């Protein structure tokens, strides 16, 4: 087991802070989204962005790829997109007389799955398999994803005609769901000033390396979660399952991912152990897209239900 | 990679894995009825300790019924889960107890087994009569209906409380405090009659109560410990006093009386006092009075056929002895009266009467709470005792001549009803013997002298082995056996004088004592004495001395028919008994017999003096109430101290427990779904920066301890810092709270009864390292 020392904590903290600062310079006033995106990255999860068009979903994803110095690929999901368009195909090479794998866009460090709900369920599931397994199988051959690997999927909540909204089981594979939201007036004025003249991404360079991120991911697993803390997480999950307003509660996987993200947050706070504060501050983002409220599948309703659970469950 | 200090140790306490981690609380009652049995047993034992108050056992059956009913119904009701969960058994018990109290104490008000409208009024009037009884009787007292009713209702109430504490709240310790309330009853009302077995009973009751839950859950070790501790305490409590030298028995005291003053009856103690072993000096005095009169405490004249008691008098708090006393009753202007004075210094006497020669005219050097009864010139402490008093008494020594007494007119019986009263059941032999002995007497003085001489003749023998009192039948025995001491001699002469129409009463006090130098005397306890005082027109109450031996001395000059026959056939009048004669020699014959009687008859103990018992009850009650009031806050202080002290780890958790408890005390509650950090930020507003820093360190430490496996000990706030912080937190919130809320938070801290959120149990040992990776392994 790799131990986590104070120097590691400090190092990861500084890497994360630099990344955060860099991304914040691209996305003015979107600190919460930036923070959650980075935490998801360091926890080894995937991110679901749900928001109206034009608020910077793609920009966020691209900035994320840029600061870690990794490759960024974007897939625009459409109803006619095929799994092979995402994963890649094996093509017969006449010269070598053998099949050759042409990797699809999913083989990148940060994959932007734009409007994932517009694709057919078949294509969606191919994508989701890559997310869950960190690998893709084409014609019996398994290809591993580059590391780190992170999918940032976006969903457009409006204009839902002819879409295949992600079912609960699929949403569960995303570590966190966030919406970016409209910028504040001041940030928007700034944006009009800067973004019209320059490409904000052009001024952003990598502040860390892929190796550093991978290493940090490994280290963060060793952040301590005391029995009390774990019991607290479980009682939160339990509360969502027993809540009369919730039709489907959180899965065990939700708990795992909640704890992972909480560990990241602990390190970002300079701690080698998780506190309930970490859990509480991430619970809404990590849990609310996984539960199904009894009345209407409204993200805000789900978020408020999770908030109620937080206010009800005693901290240990 | 090097391990970070906070990360390498991951204590995992097995108990912390589940919510009910508290090993001790996951107990299974193997015998849920045992606490009830223990409660009932404890109450029975406690009731036994109360028995010292009573002369009979009539009070016991209804008390038993009440205890069994309350505890039994409680046990049955609590067997119903809903009742147990809601704790509503106590309500049902209250209803049952009220009904039972009505049945047991006011049966006449329950014509058809149903409380009539007047039932409660009836019950209250019975209780009221009980209160009167308490004031009017001395322990051991007969268990009157009122007295019994008070006991039944009181014991019932305490049983309900203790049962609720033990069965619902599992707090037998607080129940034990209530047991002490019961113990206080016999201590106040029947202190002198308590013996070791009463103490043992209440002690056992306490131990049984403490054991209730241990027995039920069979925690053997704890039970054994409690038993041993309880037994040791009991043995020490019962045994040690028996090893100590006996302490002079204190005068019996009536329970109280309708006035705010209660009086003891020294007459009843004479027999005990006269024991030769009681040779401690009770007081010394100096006087230049050659007659050395006895030093009087009071006189008893109310005779009901059984007991001689002081005559009731109206307490007048403004009749202050220090302001001077009136001239003694019935002393005419031509009666020789000599002004004398005596300096008295009390050594060992806790009396409610002030010793003084008759007839005191003023007292210097005592508090103004010493008041006097104008008819007997008894000086009574209104809530004060004679303990260690030093004072000067000026007194009028009335020294009638024999001639004067001989010539005294017969008294008018109407004016002296009480001093002439003889109950119908007094044996005739008293009157007939009196007639025989005084046959031929021509006047009152001759009659008195005839009686005195008869008693002083060879026919009578001084003996402390006499029958025990001066009741009618005891006097009959005395006249037959002709053996006795001052109680019988004075009682018989007084009764016989009355039967012949001479107003008579018994003076009680001490003989003049033993000379220790020029005009100096010391008086010992066994020189207590009683003597008859006969009323002569013009001379007032005149002392005679029929007791032929013991500490009593010679008769006063006017009563000395042998040598002093000189002047007179009769001695008229020294108005009150003692003034004129005062030889130090007056020894007393012990009138002990009456003592036992008085206790029974004590219903109207005379208000002659002495306010102690009533005051003791009132002040004792007030003190008790105050003690009860401060018990919670004192307990709270101890809890606070224990939380804020101890090792770093327990201090870190204790501080938060205390902060939460304070919030609960203040009625604002403690949101347990908030994290420490969250609480810290809310609390920090309004704090001085020092305290805010302490608070931040406190949450750092507790967080590291709970979730990080260990805190840096140096970072944990010290006891002083913690105490300051808690005080500061209270301060920031005090201004938002009303006065009453603040008082309530202090006097009735809710955190004592409500559950306070507890942190990690720091006493548990950290388990071996627990791999956090395990959590991650589950990730699919």
TrEMBL record, chain A:
Residues 239-298 form the ChlI/MoxR AAA lid domain. SUPFAM superfamilies: P-loop containing nucleoside triphosphate hydrolases. GO terms for molecular function: ATP binding; ATP hydrolysis activity. The keyword Hydrolase applies. Keywords: Hydrolase. InterPro entries: ATPase_AAA-3 (IPR011703), CbbQ/NirQ/NorQ/GpvN (IPR050764), ChlI/MoxR_AAA_lid (IPR041628), P-loop_NTPase (IPR027417). Gene3D superfamilies: Magnesium chelatase subunit I, C-Terminal domain (1.10.8.80), P-loop containing nucleotide triphosphate hydrolases (3.40.50.300). The keyword Hydrolase applies. Its EC number is 3.6.3.-. Residues 46-175 form the ATPase AAA-3 domain. PANTHER family: METHANOL DEHYDROGENASE REGULATOR (PTHR42759:SF5), MOXR FAMILY PROTEIN (PTHR42759). This is MoxR-like ATPase. It comes from Brevibacterium jeotgali.
From TrEMBL, chain B:
Keywords: Hydrolase, Membrane, Protease, Transmembrane, Transmembrane helix. It holds the Pfam family TgpA_N. InterPro entries: Bact_TGase-like (IPR052901), Papain-like_cys_pep_sf (IPR038765), TgpA_N (IPR021878), Transglutaminase-like (IPR002931). Residues 478-548 form the Transglutaminase-like domain. GO terms for biological process: proteolysis. Residues 594-607 have a biased composition (Acidic residues). The chain crosses the membrane at residues 33-53, 59-77, 89-110, 147-167, 174-190, 196-216, 223-244, 614-635. Residues 1-26, 545-608, 756-780 are annotated as: Disordered. Coiled coil: none annotated. SUPFAM superfamilies: Cysteine proteinases. Residues 1-13 have a biased composition (Polar residues). Residues 758-780 have a biased composition (Basic and acidic residues). One of its GO terms (molecular function) is peptidase activity. PANTHER family: PROTEIN-GLUTAMINE GAMMA-GLUTAMYLTRANSFERASE. This is Transglutaminase-like enzyme, putative cysteine protease. It comes from Brevibacterium jeotgali. The lineage of its organism: Bacteria, Bacillati, Actinomycetota, Actinomycetes, Micrococcales.
